[in-house]
Amino acid sequence: MKKLLLLLMSIVMIFTLSGCESSEKVISIYGVVSKNEIKEMKYEYDKNLNISKLANALSFWSGANFYLETSEPSDNVLYVNFLGNSDFVKGLGNVKSKNFTFKDDNELRLFMLNSLAYTIRKNIKEYDIYFTANGKSINEYLSIDDIDFTKAYNTIENELVVY
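and the corresponding structure tokens:
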């Protein structure tokens, strides 16, 4: 009798749970290698989507550590600082990726900026994003084609910058 009751309770629970809607949502995150090479991966999240979750998903997918802190967005402006233990600051040395290849530190860093900016702007909001690294200007870590990385990222006019 106990076994029959247990079996019936199990069946009721299965039917009850199968009728519940999932609280998980799906978005896309983007690995931006160049303007002509943007890879996309689906990402499931639950509860509130935020920039830290996007950064963690990019870290997992790319093999590069996107450790960062962000400001509270204000007047359509967002400040993002890559922390000292991020691969943006440390460079290519520890990055092991099955999905992307980087020939040098500059290529890795540009990938990290482009991918994060593109993913934020597609999934959260089209902020004016200002990047720093370890509390310093991005220009101290990335020097390409005389690009001034102190400006809002989406205002930089260069074909290497994708947002």
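(Above: one complete record from the training split.) Residues 87 and 117 are 16 Å apart (CA to CA).
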